[in-house]
Amino acid sequence: RSQRLYSTTYLPLHRLRQKSPHVQIRGSGQAVLIHRPLKLRQKHYLALLHIFDEVSGRYTNYAYRFQSEPPFRILQVSAPLPLTTAGIASGLAVHNDTVLVTYTASEVPEARALVMSLSQLDKFFTCGEP
């Protein structure tokens, strides 16, 4: 039996959902602990989320950072990730300073990957709201 232990609200996502009830915000079940933060300057978890627009049928993918300790508050959401085709980001791995985001292309049933350094990904965390 599951029990909710912590709950927080990230205002930019909350406002987006209120303003656009036709969008669904979906997070991944995977998070990677980042010990060597860059701009954020604190240990945190890195994870993925996507926003599905029911009107257009399109997905937009983002990375987000959240606290490494309870209540695990979201700290930042990135600008949209530059996937080569429309698709859904589904996997995340970090090895040394390399970030791997796996995703499924929507036009053809094939797996793809976005690979970048942590410092390159850090540049996507400049926007305030998705």
Give a structural overview.
The structure is a single chain. Strand 3 (58-67) and strand 4 form a beta hairpin. The mean pLDDT is 89. The strands form two sheets. The protein has a four-stranded antiparallel sheet, covered by helices on one side. The protein has a three-stranded antiparallel sheet with strand order 5-6-7. Helix content is 11%, strand content 46%. The relative contact order is 0.19. It is globular. By secondary structure, it is mostly beta strands.
Task: Please give a handful of descriptors for the protein shown.
130 residues, globular
What is this entry, summarized?
With 130 residues, this protein is mostly beta strands. It contains two helices and seven strands.
Please describe the topology of this protein.
Blueprint: H1 11-19, E1 23-34, E2 44-53, E3 58-67, E4 74-77, E5 87-95, E6 98-105, E7 111-117, H2 118-122
Antiparallel strand pairs: 1-2, 2-3, 3-4, 5-6, 6-7
Quaternary organisation? single chain
Rg estimate, integer Å: 15 Å
Strand % is over 45%
Order of helices and strands: HEEEEEEEH
| Beta-strand segment tally | 7
Approximately how much helix is present in the residues?
10-25%
Structural class: mainly beta
Name the average pLDDT.
89
Query: Are there runs of 5+ residues with pLDDT below 50, and where?
Result: none
| Intertermini distance | 33 Å
Q: Biggest β-sheet: count, sense, barrel?
A: 4 strands, antiparallel
Number of helices: 2
Task: Based on Cα principal axes, name the global outline.
Answer: globular
Major sheet strand order: 1-2-3-4
